[in-house]
From TrEMBL:
SUPFAM superfamilies per the UniProt record, alphabetical: NAD(P)-binding Rossmann-fold domains
Family, similarity comment: Belongs to the short-chain dehydrogenases/reductases (SDR) family.
Organism: Mycobacterium botniense
Keyword Repressor: no
Pfam entry (one): adh_short
Keywords: Oxidoreductase
Keyword Protein biosynthesis: no
Protein name (database record): Putative oxidoreductase
Superkingdom to which the source organism belongs: Bacteria
GO molecular function: oxidoreductase activity, acting on the CH-OH group of donors, NAD or NADP as acceptor
Length: 251
């Protein structure tokens, strides 16, 4: 890997778009050598090139790709488990098992695979940090959201379990739980239906990917004895997963 060996290394999964892309840029500006991981080669390479980082084209649901990622990294100081998302909004009675499988594979098993593969290097760094981007869906539920909320609850449980299991080891753990952030999230959830995706954010001001990245940047620059356990970030216009402001158009 062509990284400046003096620099601390931050691995960001899902760095080709949204929160991951913004986080990669923020961490690079703070002096980290960023390893940007995602499936879309062109996009993740463009992000890495822009920040002088390294692009790794990998699917977090593919064990051999994750193992290959771990093998090519000599050093890992920070891991941001960000790759993830939602598919569909069907009620349980009409649940699409393939949607569930995608959400569990990506959010839960993806986080498990990448974390397990990079953990020895995070420990060896002497001051490792694991940031996992869950969601308010990790502690709330809503109609039609069972597949996503179940996956995010599980991802959060995995992350919080590690906090206890790693006690005494030089690794910090932070869970970031955002509310509505305007990214490609809804476009992915609704299978490319732009109108339906845009309607999610109509009449309110959602968070931006940069809003979340700045908070992750804050966490990554605390001194080694400070563990920020959990941060919930919502737009002012959103109180819960289902309660939010809806202003008439143009106001
Ligand atoms: N937006 C929100 O309102 C919101 C709220 C709370 C939590 N979150 C969480 O925040 C995280 C980031 O979402 P986002 O809003 O930034 O969505 P996004 O714009 O759709 O970005 C998702 C990123 O994950 C990557 N990804 C998806 N599946 C992957 C896989 N199997 N392997 C590797 N990378 C994969 C995508 O890249 P490729 O397609 O190139 O692989 C993309 O870079 C997710 O975990 C999401 O659940 C989002």
């Amino acid at each position: 890997m062509t990284s400046d060996s003096q620099k601390r290394v931050a691995v960001v999964t899902g760095a080709s778009a949204g929160i991951g892309e913004a986080t990669a840029k923020t961490l690079a500006a703070q002096g980290f050598h960023v390893v940007a991981v995602a499936r879309r080669a062109e996009r993740v390479t463009a992000v890495a090139d822009e920040i002088g980082g390294t692009a790794v084209v990998a699917d977090v649901t593919d064990e051999s790709a994750v193992d290959a990622l771990a093998r090519q990294l000599h050093r890992v100081d920070v891991l941001v488990n960000n790759a993830g998302g939602a598919k569909g909004l069907e009620p349980v009675a009409e649940a699409d098992v393939e949607h569930w499988r995608w959400m569990w594979e990506t959010n839960v098993l993806g986080t498990l695979r990448v974390t397990r593969a990079l953990l020895p290097k995070l420990i060896a760094s002497g001051d490792g940090l694991i940031v996992t981007v869950t969601s308010i869906a990790a502690f709330e539920i809503y109609d039609g959201g069972s597949g996503y909320t179940a996956a995010k609850h599980a991802q959060s449980a995995l992350h919080r379990t590690l906090r206890g299991e790693l006690l005494g080891k030089p690794v910090r753990l932070t869970e970031i739980a955002p509310g509505m952030v305007h990214t490609e999230f809804s476009l992915v959830r609704f299978d490319g239906d732009r109108q339906r995706a845009d309607a999610v954010y109509a009449g309110m001001t959602p968070l931006t990917a940069t809003d979340i990245a700045e908070v992750i940047g804050f966490v990554a620059t605390r001194p080694p004895h400070v563990n920020v356990d959990q941060i919930v970030i919502r737009p002012r216009d959103q109180a819960t997963a289902t309660r939010r402001v809806t202003r008439p158009a143009g106001r």
